[in-house]
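Review form for a predicted model. The reviewer records the input and the model, then writes brief findings.
Reviewer: anonymous (R2)
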Amino acid sequence: MIVRSDPTALNGRPCAVAASMELVGDRWSMLVIREVVFGNHQFSEIARNTGAPRDRLAARLRSLVDAGVLERRPGSTGGRHEGYYLTEAGEDLRHVLRALLAWGNKWVVTTPPLRLAHHDHPLELESHCSTCGEKVEDADLTEEMVAPGWDMHGRL
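Model under review:
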């Protein structure tokens, strides 16, 4: 189960984005998630493919397990080594990775080193409302700050 945090405990505006960034917002955490999504579950595989220093990687893996984003399971060969696997909360980060990949391919890298295909065509991401099925357009969204003492402009 994911460990939840009080968004008002952080400095600045209470926000789920800020709380999420505290948990998975550093480079190594998201690269760990990427590797597990790609099917690399062993520490050595994750270390090789992220380039993370081993001590930092061990700390990130521990914090992601403690937070409920990853879980450790026995290796498939029944050996003493455990692998890292996504929990339900970790699985939901697949959407974040896809969005970062699409953004990075468009705006950051000179040539995309990885592309996603949907059946026989390049994947183009869009947001749709799961309640009504409509495509999400910025003009159709409203923001409502519900944290006491705050509005959309800041602290009251």
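Findings: The CA atoms of residues 129 and 141 lie 11 Å apart.
Further findings: The chain is about 40% helix and 10% strand.
Recommendation: see findings above.
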